[in-house]
Amino acid sequence: MMQLRPRWLACSLGVMLALGGARPTQAGEIKSAAASRTAEPAFAYPNRPDELEDRVLDIFEAKCAFAGCHAGTAAPQGLDLTEQGFKASLLSVKSSGLPKFMRVKPGDAGNSYLMGKLRGSASIKGERMPKGAAPLSAEEIKTIESWINSLASDIKIEAPQREYAQAFYGWSLANLPTAEPVEKGAFMYRIAHRFKATVDQGFDQLFGLDGGAFMMTQLAFPLTNDFSLNLARSGLNATFEIGGKWRLLREKTDGSMPVSAALYAGVDWATLKGIPDPANPAAGNLSRTDGERFAIFGQVPITKQFGSRVSAAVVPGILLNGNVTVDGEDPLVTIGLGGKFAFNQKYALFSEIVPIVSGDETALTVGGTRFDGGKQIFNDTFVAGLEIKAGGHVFHLFVTNSGGNTTNQYLSGGNLDFADGDFRLGFNIYRILNYPF
Length: 437
Prior knowledge:
The protein folds into 2 domains: 7-150, no CATH class; 186-434, Beta Barrel (Porin), CATH 2.40.160.40. 15% of the residues lie in helices and 30% in strands.
């Protein structure tokens, strides 16, 4: 068995291969590099194609075919190096960065994009791969080379039939949770911004970008492939969110399980000093750990993928003790609705709305409650935007009527009327990362 190196270093192999980071100037230059290494490796057993394939899979699984890297339906550039997908991702597939070269040219390792990068050919642009790590061993390189040369030049590979569907890539839409946890072997980092000022501030205020932002950072760690813990912090009221997501159902491509579903539950803890005790303002401020500071929430995201382009989500939820300024407020009951239309693997449009079924009279809306003629005006949180998937990142760029980031904040509605053209800009950045050990 080969010596295994840290996965986070070797993951760059698959990334650079997919992006076309190596740029041989002509096919012959790569071929000449391979020709200088014509001696066949000494294997402990015959070089039958199936045995070579098993050894290549060992290399891929050790270096890159794991959560957060090149595995599954969300693999960067569609380069899935798992056992189910590596052939369809590599064989006779053009490099996304340099379409004139194939990632792997069956039967011809010398003209395969992969080999030029692994060997560190003089014609490539950039560093030899794996970037930042020791090169693959001579045996590993020879194994991959021999496997490529053993393939028939006219080999036909059908796309694998995946067992599970994935309606949404990220931990959430702009706000609403999806049914997707973080799989073991990686963790999720998210940055969320909701700009305070509205777009109609015009160019002088850069359409609201100069007005500051409500910000949140978030981490999610998997305990199993179906259960993840989450910790987030928002600057608004110095709020911490502590929660867990448990996937209950997982949609299958054959229709035997038609939807994915999860339970997301936790607490939002407002830790800001100087919040008066709503039950007795004369008594002073709430202590840091007073029960009034803890909002309790539960949501059940149910998602469904329709074909390869359309996905939908229904997310019923409940919020208890959501207004830190009111004693004994009503429970807030919501039914979130979300959808996505994908143009391709990289770009999609999405939208979500979070109608409040009951409890809005005592909700604490970020930005303050609006009144018209002495009557309270309430707006459900609404978002519409663009999703961009690039490598291990998911970006959300959108417009919204709410400044909330934590569950308590966005469930409590928006302070702008989207129908009147009042909205602010916002964005999320999600990154799936591997542990550096």
